[in-house]
Amino acid sequence: MLLTVLSEEGQIQPTASKTRKRLGRRLRAGGFQKTLPKRLKALRKSHPGAEVEIWAEDEARSGLKPVMRRVWAPVGQRPTARVKRGYKWTYLYGFVRPTTGEVYWLILPTVNKELFSMVLHEFAREVGAGKDKRILLVLDQAGWHTSGEVEVPEGIHLEFLPTGSPELQPAERLWPLTNEAIANQLFEEISEIEDALVERCVQLLDQSETIRDLTNYHWWPQSA
Questions:
Q1: Per DSSP, what are the bridge partners of residue 184?
Q2: Three-class SS of residue 4?
Q3: CB–CB of 223/108 below 8 Å?
Q4: How many helices (H) and strands (E) does the chain have?
Q5: pLDDT 10s digit of each residue in the chain, 224 long?
Q6: Could you tell me which residues come within 8 angstroms of residue 132 by beta carbon, excluding any fewer than 6 positions away?
Q7: Residue 6 buriedness (CB in 10 A; 0-12 / 13-18 / 19+)
Q8: Would you give the DSSP letter of residue 111?
Q9: Residue spans per domain, the chain
Q10: Which letter, b or e, does each residue of 19-41 get, where b requires 16 or more Cβ atoms within 10 Å of its Cβ?
Q11: What CATH number labels 38-215?
Q12: Backbone phi, then psi, for 192, in 5-degree steps?
């Protein structure tokens, strides 16, 4: 049953259920923003003497289906773009430390709990996570993240975002930057896309200030 509510002026008003849904999302978002610093503080307390950092992680799917963006064109002329639909994909795994703009990338052919376990171990080794260094890693509740079969290495502590809250994920801000390499271009093979993404990710390693400005939300816990 669909319920439509009209105001006295005849304008459509949101139903009570939609209003409650939006309010629920705001409450969940606000709750996470308040509890994340507490979670970080508790981690420091439970591991005295250890270095503690907070990172975020997400994945983006890229494929032969083109990424289209607007372009400038002379008045009265419509720009053309070559398009060839394809349904092969590759996945870019992105880790970001918002307070510094540090990033770590991996490109893999798919997403699943086995590969995610491998990704966590590679990341832990890269940043030196372990007994003397603890990483609080913020990520969404994708199935391959929450599976009980994921092998989480020592030093990595997973912190899950509320359901349906991508606006709280700093790593989401990485994808417009990485898509610069593939937007409005036609690729024949997945390997060509991977090569373009690798080159772009290498460039972004030297753009920590830009990444920090995009991902370091005002409510994000700052380093001690």
A1: none
A2: coil
A3: no
A4: 6, 7
A5: 344 344 445 554 555 556 555 544 555 677 899 999 999 999 999 999 999 999 999 999 998 777 777 777 788 888 776 666 777 899 999 999 999 999 999 999 999 999 999 999 999 999 999 999 999 999 999 999 999 999 999 999 999 999 989 999 999 999 999 999 988 888 889 999 999 999 999 999 999 999 999 999 999 998 64
A6: 49, 50, 51
A7: exposed
A8: -
A9: 38-215
A10: eeeeeeeeebbeebeeebeeebe
A11: 3.30.420.10
A12: -65, -40
Which residues make Cβ contacts (< 8 Å) with residue 1, sequence separation at least 6?
none
First-to-last C-alpha distance (Å) of the chain: 52
Cβ atoms of 59 and 111 closer than 8 Å: yes
Chain center to CA of 92: 10
